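lol ok so funny story. i was supposed to be doing the assay writeup but got distracted and ended up predicting the structure for this chain instead. priorities right. anyway since i did it might as well share w the group, maybe its usefull for someone
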Amino acid sequence: MSRHERSLPASTRGAGPSRVSNPHIAVPHDQRKQELNREVAKLDAELSNIREEIGQLQALSALRSDERRKLLQELEQLSVAPGNAKGKNTDGVSGTDYSSDDFPWYGELKNQMERVFNIRDFRLCQQGVCNANMDSRDIVCVMPTGGGKSLTYQLPALLNPGCTLVVSPLISLITDQILHLREAGIEAVKITGGTPKAEAREINSRLVAMAQNRPTQGREIKLCYVTPEKIAKSKTFMSMLQKLVDGGRLARIVIDEAHCVSQLGHDFRPDYQKLHILRQNFPHVPIMALSATCPPRVLDDLLRVLGLKGVVDGNNAKVNGTVYFCSPLYRKNLHYKILPKAAALKAQITAMKEYILENHANHTGIVYCHTKKDAEKVAEGLKAESGGKIKTGVYHAERGDQEKETLHRRWRKGDVQVVCATIAFGLGIDKGDVRFVLHHTLSKSLDSYYQESGRAGRDGKDSDCVLYFRPADFSNLSSMMASERGGADKFHHMLAFAHDLVECRKIAFAKYFSHASQLSLTSWATADADALSRCGHCDNCNRDPNSFERRDATLDSWKVLRIVDAFKTSGTQLTLAMLTDLARGNSSGRDKAALDLEDVCQGKVELTKDDLESLLVELVVKKYLVENYHSTAYKTVAYLSNGPLALQFTRFSKQRLETDSLAPKLECCFRTKQPKGKGRNRARESIGSKRRREPESEDHEHNDFSDEDIEELEEPDFYGEMDDFIVPDKQPSRKAIGSRRRPSRGFEALDHIGSSDVDVSWSYSMRDDPKSSPTKRRRVSATTNSARSTAKFGRNYEREVIELSDSD
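and the output, tada:
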């Protein structure tokens, strides 16, 4: 070893040239790079948040602009004179006024109407439509459900030579019409998928004989009803029609429920679109299209599909064009009411039974149910609960044609009082003395509800339309509508209608059809009042001011939206039930999670379960909350998240929300509890104060629930599968979601959240009945047992924290 090597430190001997830079330079250089990277990442995150906020503000701006457009549209409609209806001639050329009686056939029309149909006077636009029919014009007629559309083609069919072909979508509708016509002594036949082959061959032979002017067995067939499938798929039937045309014996083609032609309508049927071959094959046979609701966009589609010319006004019709008639859609004999729905099926059936016996003991009615299973259970329950006083029948798609027809006959004869049915029992049912239509649950759209409730009171006499509603139904039905085109938006309008405790039902209908369907508001005007005058006889017009209260719900809304915002970053989704429990500070489940309510929104929402559910529906209706749908192999689940409008609230702090004049405000109407000692099942309220019976004694008890009844309380099955709720391996024990001071690294998932508070599973009737309501426990730092889990309430850094733990 050289002397030089011996002078070096041992650690450097034989190490070769030094590769270490000056430490006083290297360390600060690396540290600076790390600091810069952190700053860049921080700015990237901030810019990402800004871009997200800009996107939210742009979405908010778009929504508000759309609301402004709708308001301007309504303002424009209110500025239009009622006489300026679509289709009216404006070129100064005089046309035919079909509403007059200056026609050679008018006298015979009147005579036959009174002799055969026992009707003395025309209603609405019936006279004009019949005259245009006799004049062999193409016609589009829009009349309200129960307005008398059938007469406008059945009466002219008696006077015109040959057979009138009627295309109708439902077996129940066709059966109903055939029964009516045969009772009136008119020869009418039907050919549907359920018609026996021998009977179909006989009908076909009779029609061919008519076409060839040969003698036929029996009287001449004046009306032949078919389903659209016959037109679309039966070459034999189309060949027979051609023979009728060649022989000059096909008087007219009538397409009932013509809105089914359009994909833009609320009840589109694919086979209806194939009806274009009627005009294509038989260009000189007049076509008549009938509907109860046919907004402009559907009308345009209908004209295109059926090959009809543009419309001209029936009161001033030029020679060329399709004659258009439209009558007011408002029917003042129908009294609408929304009643709270009991949570348990048994309790709800009891409520409907008592309503029917108290208000319509000897009247005919319909109960619409959402599913076949519900229809069968309700029918069975009403019969059993009433001790056989209410004679019920069931009608749905899985019943055989013969079974349906038998029920229809028995119902018309009065052997069956109440038909419990799905919407398969719907379009065109023409039993005049239906005094009530009950809806066991929400319809899928307000269009559908208008059609279905319109089965009542077709004879013009007072009739009741009652819908039972509970906010908890929202999630189930919303999920079912998710797969339909525009289904969610249509359902929201139905939800808003049922949720509203203030606006007149007539005005609500008018506004909906004006905005959603672009129908003129004048469609809801009458000779006595304009469209926006209150009807004076619906539930909201007659509502007791003490039965509800309008409260400022701004702070509660802010809290709800902040909670949803806090869960957004965790990737966890909330159903309406889960959000209700979380916001009220009541949660339980198999997994554990902690929510720092104080940190997220400065405390829980101080509302009852019923009131909070109503507020959540309000937030959905007003688009502060939106649904996201998650499909599993078995169902679709609706989860709630903040919509673009939520930013109106969430961008404010609580202090600014309470003090800033520019901060948003939100009011909500809540039902009030009935006075102690007068609690009755709210689902049994009568219709209209003018027609309400004398109240029963206050000691008459209606809510004596047994333990078995309580166990049957039905919660909508909207919890769904929770496979997408991922639980990280490393989980914080008590850190809270949304905490700004101690952010959590992971999130503990929520599953099957139900309330641990005793009152969460109360039905409406139980909450209103002091005798049947269990005593509410004080919320203390204790453990409340539920069926499968416990909820512990404690304090963490002087904040209320909810910890969920499994009880197993």
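Confidence is low (pLDDT under 50) at residues 80-90, 676-736, 738-808. Residues 700 and 757 are 29 Å apart (CA to CA).
back to the writeup now i swear
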